[in-house]
């Protein structure tokens, strides 16, 4: 198939492009090359540089395309409130412009990059009162060093459970809000355009080619950058935050599986899938594993600090992707995070 890949020069997009070609697809690469993601890098050969928000720019690229794999987005948690217009324009308007151009060109198959951040906090259970939905953690509670969520009914510490795709969406950052909007646009487009779309909710992606230490990098890259400077990785809160870290090679494989799924699906179909390793780890464990992969073996420093708006635990169930797409992650975090300590990063 001829596949239009947006965000093709990015960390994840680069891996997806290679995986698609290995699967026998012709890839049409598109990337705006935003400085916050690419610095001063040159446009890679064979890549069309255009702004996703300009619907007119898409029309000629959609001609003859069988499906679109949409990775282009401003990423990160939303460093400042002032970042809101960037998220809304690049992620929301950009997706809407692409979908409109796809409809005009008769392209009716979409794989969309979404994120675990659409869930907000993960799933929590009280031994006495069952599933609970905790409110955002208060500043004074965090200042006191109390990081866990508590049962609204009895005050007991809530245990975490796996989140599946039926969980309610509760975005708690500008990036998260834009990802929810992208999913809603894709779902509405699938119905209105008699098309088919799949959203992949990536959990914490890491691996070779990840951007170095910037406000938009993942925590694994920030730990890695600290180690390269000879500094101890700084771990927020008490390090007990539970996450799922999935290797970029597995994310690329998930996109190939999703493309097959969306092509085989009937029209009017929209589905979302968690893309995760299925092996939860704490943030402290992540710092320790990355540190263990270095010669110096620098131990992390637990700071007790926090970022207001961060969620405590968010761990996915990968079961739906396994059953419906046949996708199972192949890289275990215990192995991949150690290897990541010496993997090449991009400037």
Short description:
The chain has 347 residues and is α/β, with parallel strands linked by helices.
Outline the structure in words:
The protein is of the alpha/beta class. It contains eleven helices and 16 strands. The chain has a seven-stranded parallel β-sheet, with helices on both faces. A three-stranded antiparallel β-sheet has the order 7-6-8, with no helix packed on it. The chain has a two-stranded parallel ribbon with strand order 10-13. Helix 2 (35-38) links the parallel strand 2 and strand 3 (47-48). The longest helix is centred in the first third of the chain and has 22 residues, at 84-105. It is globular, with a radius of gyration of 20 Å. The protein starts with a strand and ends in a 7-residue tail after the last helix. The mean pLDDT is 91.
